[in-house]
Amino acid sequence: MSLRQVKFDPSGVLRLAEHVLWWAEHADGRTSRPGLVPALFAADPTLLYHLPVADIANRLGARLPGLMDVLRGPNEAHGCPEAITDDELAALPVPALHVGGWYDLLLPETLHHWSTVGSTLGERPPRRLVLGPWTHDLTATPPTVGARSHGPSSRVALGRLQVNWLRSVLDPGFGQPSSQASVFLVGSDGWWNGQTWPPDATRELTLFADRHGDLITAAPTAIGENEFRCDPLDPFPSRELATDRVDLASRADAARYTTAPLASSTTLAGTPTARLRVAGSAPCTDWVARLLELTASGQHISVAHGSFVAHGNTSPACHDLNARPYLIMTLPFENPDMPPGWVSYGAHVAPTEVYAPWQVDRYGFGAAIGDPGRARRAAVGEAVERYCGNIVPTDLPFGSYYSLTSAGREAIDPHSLALYSDQQYATPGFPFSPLTPDTSIGWVTGCDLHTGRTVLAPASLAYLNYYRGARVGEPPTNALCYAGIAAGENIEHAEGSALAELFERDALALWWASGAPANLVSDGGGIADLLADPRSDSRRIRLLDIPSPFGVPVVGAFIEDHKHAVIAFGGACRSTPVEAAKKALAEAFGLLSLTLQLTDPYSEVWRAVKSGTFGPRVFRPFRADRAYRRQFRSDFRDLTDLPLIAQLYLDPLMQGAPLDRLRPPAPGTPLAALPAIVDPDPRADYLRRLQKSGLRAVSIDLTNPRRGSGRFARRSRDRPQALRERRASVPVPRRSASLRGPRRARLGPRPCERDHPGPPSPAAGVVVWPRPTPSSSTRGQGSSADWSDRRSPATSRRHSRSSAASCPTPSSSVLGPAMRLVRVTPSTMKPPQPRQPLERPSNGTAETWSRPGCARRAMTRWQQTA
Q: How far apart are CA 609 and CA 602, in angstroms?
């Protein structure tokens, strides 16, 4: 048991009363002083109603060791590296007696141990659960806790119970120990006995809050909201579970929702869950949801509660009440305009700035067609990817390619990376420096997936938002790159997902930049029918076969919502065309949910813009006429943020000719006729295709080592699992020519390799319209970033915005940052540079940009135009 679990709620909210009062009784002197706290509160019930909290020790007249450290929030010191893990608990081959109290702070731990100990063994050892109306010290007498009286049946001879259990385990002649749960039902004041808890017959009851303050069983037909104001100088009081809270019912700084009187006796079993969609004007807000019982005598007794710390002016809050303190929590992302078959979740990660010197992107988004479990896992997976991808170790190898290879270490040759052209580097104002073999940079250890050898890769191509903190002095060599990072249940799963994402990005970039059409795909409406869309008469869905030079299934989904005059596009690569089509459609509807909000000036997105949660450059000001095209340059160099693409395509001028290639004539190719990967191991197939093309894949393990044994834990309903975080990189030769030279030649023939319609004429040039897919990531395992539900603090968003200064268009609409997959022919390769002596002087590129923030702000711009 770690101190963090004792001192803080799962959300990170400090348990002030538990910490302060326990230490006052047990840590202020050489011996404990039981009864001190009741005596203090009898004299002054408002002892803890004192601000600032830092002075509360003087108020109590007691020493509180480490109080200031605790007030700063959870940190490493509050962990417990010796604590037993869930895997060890599940494999523990011993009988277990679990005794806990309904009013015990550590009740969730007791129930977790009951459900976990020995659960992975073939024959589970005997176990016993005894749960009564007691506090942490298991006080059985008197039978009253707080405002509740539980009657004489609540008294249990715990000493005799423990002795009998031990005898049954140790003495074969005493009788076999029984596996059962004995739970005191508060309210009925009797004991329930059974084999499981909660009972197998338990059913789920869902209640909805309406604008009138009622809790009802039917979903409201209209969306409303309740508003209240809170005063930090008069915070809402917290009290123990069993105390009467009726005097707090008149406070105006809370929203209350009440059911009708219960028609019959109801037993509450399990873990209640509250899902809230909230917004606040404070930069940081502690949201608390509490379940109360309104008794016939007029008491308001707390049954359960949960909390969530919202950072940023607008943030949804969802938490399992009384749940264990997991790092990740998820909540469904609800939009009444979306079809019920489209399921989406947002995932929230605990803030790191309170206990670590780094900041992470704390939000993930995932969606699926008809599979809530997949959508939830996708959201958690993306949150893990963003979390781990932002944590850059402080002990990375540093040096140039020449110095590392001279020391006998294998590293990726910078000449094999497709970054930018000489023309781009020579353009005034270009934000990135050339990455040459003698450029001193940070490196990260990876694995060559073809040979298994250890190889060093540039760290800036592996981690997200790399150029910050201690690394601001490194020469900025590339933009932030989301593609090729994935989380999975094991290393192979994560690597396969990362490679699939790279295949997808390569195919979409080549196809779109070339201007080539795509074949229509027909599935007889089977996938669209999974949506059960009540608005299907006003929405047109087209599935498109996106040509890939590697022959992998890549499918695009194009949605035209005629009722709202909006469009959306999504793409995906999977091992089968059906799965690729489902994922592409889920991506497209994710974009549609954002686009529909952009048409409503009172939507959640525009409220976030008004409150400052979104920066001023994320969107152009709202226009009722949607004439956004005129607000951008003709070459779109000022289209500097991903969400702007969705706003641009609200303009009717952009929904015509620029998108005609997404409306190919029928009939289409049957979905089942598209090529599929027949190998049961898609990862192995991906690697063979790369090797056949002369490309090399390198995998970097980004799993956060702070989680222990290199694993990032998550919990499912069945048992603990692990997520491994991988970054896949495919170095390809750099070219010196511009797109209109040799690289332009690749854009023409590639979309034609699989009998696709012919390429545009050479005079057509490279397509300058941005692809209508403003998703910052498309995860290999099914998640995607959706700005309509992303409310990270401005400090973390700053790294993915670009500046408003005019910059040249990158020469490559295909390559972009080096993590993209690009197939090249020998005629377009630039030969490796001759090896230079180690003592060769630096070329001075590190001093070229003395404002590293400029490079960070320009990251998205170069990624967008790419």
A: 11
